[in-house]
Automatic annotation (TrEMBL):
Transmembrane segments: none
Any Pfam family hit: NAD_binding_11
GO-annotated molecular function: glyoxylate reductase (NADPH) activity; NAD binding; NADP binding
Keyword Oxidoreductase listed: yes
Function statement: Catalyzes the NADPH-dependent reduction of glyoxylate to glycolate as well as succinic semialdehyde (SSA) to gamma-hydroxybutyrate in vitro. May function in redox homeostasis and play a role in oxidative stress tolerance by detoxifying glyoxylate and SSA generated in glycolate metabolism and GABA metabolism, respectively.
Name of the featured protein: Glyoxylate/succinic semialdehyde reductase 2, chloroplastic
GO (cellular component) term, any one: cytoplasm
Length: 370
């Protein structure tokens, strides 16, 4: 039950919002829209509303929950920019459009924007133009290099920002990169929020992402209704860099789990067991995880429909190892997993789902038997 403040010397989780399906105390009242009234909106002229859906709102700061009034129409950003229309960005932007938001999109390959344009999205030819025409701009890029280029490059979003606007970077990057982007954005007078997500393609499609945010609190409060459309929960973690760090730790654990799971599937088959039964046994025990039950059957069939590309998982492991090195924290299990993903990349599995890492183990077994 999310009613406690979680603190240690690195993170400060100060809020979490859950969708109605989550069990919460009966003292929590249904919000009349889907988020608390936003008292600290972005500076600038009033901005209009769009259709919303009911949410349950839980404040973890005060160890209690309380009913809140609906967000007023003047307090919601009316023009939303979206940069990066890929595996994650496309369904996220689509959910905003379907909720009635006025969305303007950009992508290096324009054809990827066409399905969203057909749903009513506008299109601009550069990140700068998108940021200039929108109140809040979201960016979902593949990695640190592209995130910096789209935000700070020659035709980057920073060139179109000014006081009264906001920039929300959903990309998975390291803390140093996030702080660099924040510096450029805030130099324009705009507000900045990092908001990497936990979740892959299907959660993005279903609006079930988990947002790990940090940065300007007023911008967090302003975009909360938008995060609630795209996700099932959101955490505010304080200073810029904390959201990036949390995402890297989560993905480090995920990548290591998948590597171990792959070893187990291969070992079970090697000793004459049915790996499908192993998946079922795991799903009913203490180590049950949605990732195992979702990806296990297709892994047994050696098919890897891409929900989270293997190259991105290896990138996140590399960044997580760098984070651990910066604080002198040993991470031997993650380091070993990273090597396995590197082997998988060397066999041309970059764009397969990260569960294809199991193929690296098969290759090693085959080579050792020949």
């Amino acid at each position: 039950m999310a009613t406690a403040v979680i603190k240690n010397n690195f993170y400060n989780v100060s809020s979490i919002v859950l969708k109605p399906s989550t069990a919460i105390p009966t003292t929590v009242a249904m919000c009349s829209n889907f988020c608390p009234r936003i008292s600290n909106r972005l500076p600038g002229p009033p901005i209009s509303s769009f259709p919303t859906q009911p949410r349950l709102c839980v404040s973890a700061n005060a160890f209690s929950s309380q009913a809140t009034n609906a967000t007023s129409k003047e307090e919601l950003p009316s023009r939303i920019g979206f940069l990066g229309i890929g595996i994650m960005g496309s369904p996220m932007a689509q959910n905003l459009i379907k909720s009635g938001c006025d969305v303007t999109v950009w992508n290096r390959t324009k054809s990827k924007c066409d399905p969203l344009i057909s749903l009513g999205a506008k299109y601009k030819s550069s990140p700068e133009e998108v940021a200039a025409s929108c109140d809040v701009t979201f960016a979902v890029l593949a990695g640190p290099e592209s995130a910096v280029d789209v935000a700070c490059g020659k035709y980057g979003a920073a060139n179109g920002l000014r006081p009264g606007k906001g920039y929300v970077d959903v990309s998975t990057v390291d803390g140093v990169t996030s702080k660099l982007i924040s510096k450029h954005i805030k130099a324009t007078g705009a507000l900045f929020l990092e908001a990497p997500v936990s979740g892959s393609k299907k959660p993005a499609e279903d609006g079930q992402l988990i947002f790990l945010t940090a940065g300007d609190k007023p911008l967090y409060e302003t975009v909360a209704p938008l995060l609630d459309i795209m996700g099932k929960s959101r955490f505010y973690l304080g200073d810029v860099g904390n959201g990036a760090a949390m995402k890297l730790v989560v993905n480090m654990i995920m990548g290591s789990m998948m590597a171990s799971f792959s070893e187990g599937l291969i070992l079970s088959e090697k000793v004459g067991l049915d790996p499908n039964v192993l998946v079922e046994v795991i799903s009913q025990g203490a180590i049950s995880a949605p990732m195992f039950s979702t990806k296990g059957p297709s892994m047994v069939q050696a098919t890897y429909p891409t929900a989270f590309p293997l190259k991105h998982q290896q990138k996140d492991l590399r960044l997580a190892l760098g984070l651990a090195e910066s604080v002198s924290q040993p991470t031997p299990i993650a380091a070993a997993a990273n090597e396995l993903y590197k082997v998988a990349k060397s066999h041309g599995l970059n764009d397969q789902d990260f569960s294809a890492v199991i193929e690296a183990l098969k290759t090693k077994l085959q080579s050792s038997e020949n």
